[in-house]
Amino acid sequence: MAIRRKTYSELCVGYAQVPRGILVRTPLEAQDAVKSLGKNCIFRAQVLCGHSGKLLFEDGLRGGIQTVENLEQGLDLATRMLNRQVTSENIHHRSLTVNQVLVSESLVHEDQWHLVMTIDRENYCPVVIISKYNDSASQDEQMPQNVSEKEFSFTFSFSQGITEDLVSRISTSLGVGREEMTNLADVLTNLYKIFREKDATLLEISPLARLSTGLFACLDATLVVDDDAAKRQPDIFRLRDTTQEVHDEVRAEQHSLVYIKMDGNIGNIVNGAGLAMVTNDAIGLHGGASANFLDAGGQATKETMIQALGIVMGDERVKAILINIYGGITRCDMIAESIIGAAQEMTLAVPLVVRLQGTNSTEGLKLLADARLGLHVESDFGRAAQRAVELAQP
């Protein structure tokens, strides 16, 4: 779960230096915020879309991070940003509405870096990844293309955290003087404290700036918290804004389904994340493209199938659906009964291919064939994927 930048700034109070900021919902509030913070301010559209600098507004305004130099500019810019639709290459298949803008003070800085704290899944430990922004990149141009090619990566121990040796190596790589190392150590230590205490999977500081005073400040940030930490982090998850998320993904989650919208036209319903990924690959191998990733889990009841089929068929791009089930603990005859029950209660608007393999698969396939619902029943994985691709053709 990702949280808004303003929310992250509030979490950082007492941990790291962040610019003063005011969250606004109307142009007049934005004008008052500029008056309060000073003439030079940064406007940041509050949408969950990755790099907001790449946003395209409906009136042609480019960039969700903008610099304001006076009250008139603030009023005009807020009018163009607030309650406007935006699109971005990071927002698939939809647009988002900017309901809030974060107005923050512009801090004078000498150098700026892009810093990421995440998990190194190959080495099973945290990692800090740092790269320097090009000198020409202004605060409203903090995007990947403005990051230098040279990237530094530092793994460290969960238990030891930010050590003197780690700070020394990072400082050497960044060209930070000895007199500034103490402040950098404090910033890194506090960032890791947030990362660990909040069960984060990603903490992105964009940028980490060295101010004219020699101190370091986190000018902008993104915090992503592990979805499985909801019970441990109730205060964080209460901040969730589902209006910024894909509606069908939220709906699927409410029914214990894992659904991710993709770019193709073949819907998938699979039990198990690994099998779902292989199914996407098999469809691609046969010349097709998946419209979604949907893991129905091990409890594929009739109600689960109704919800899964409803979500997938609700996508107008879908021209065929592949249900791919491997029965281990889950019995294929039970899955077949669930599919039959769901199909009898729904109108199947597109061809449906069903592949069953594993425990009681013979019985399950027979049940599907005897039901005479017009389903395309297959036992072979490759043939099922190929059939789905064929049926999805115009």
UniProtKB/TrEMBL annotation:
An annotated Gene Ontology molecular function: metal ion binding
The residue ranges crossing the membrane are none
Name of a matching Pfam family: ATP-grasp_2
Keyword Lipoprotein attributed: no
Residues forming the ATP-citrate synthase/succinyl-CoA ligase C-terminal domain are 269-374
Pathway it works in = Carbohydrate metabolism; tricarboxylic acid cycle; succinate from succinyl-CoA (ligase route): step 1/1
Top-level division of the source organism's lineage: Eukaryota
The ATP-grasp fold succinyl-CoA synthetase-type domain sits at 17-209
Gene Ontology CC terms: mitochondrion; succinate-CoA ligase complex
Q: Which GO biological process categories is it annotated with?
A: succinyl-CoA metabolic process; tricarboxylic acid cycle
**Keywords annotated in UniProt:** ATP-binding, Ligase, Magnesium, Metal-binding, Nucleotide-binding, Transit peptide, Tricarboxylic acid cycle
InterPro entries assigned: ATP-grasp_succ-CoA_synth-type, ATP_grasp_subdomain_1, Succ-CoA_synthase_bsu_CS, SUCC_ACL_C, Succ_CoA_ligase-like_bsu, Succinyl-CoA_synth-like
Gene3D superfamilies cross-referenced by the UniProt entry: ATP-grasp fold, A domain, ATP-grasp fold, B domain, Succinyl-CoA synthetase domains
Name of the featured protein: ATP-grasp domain-containing protein
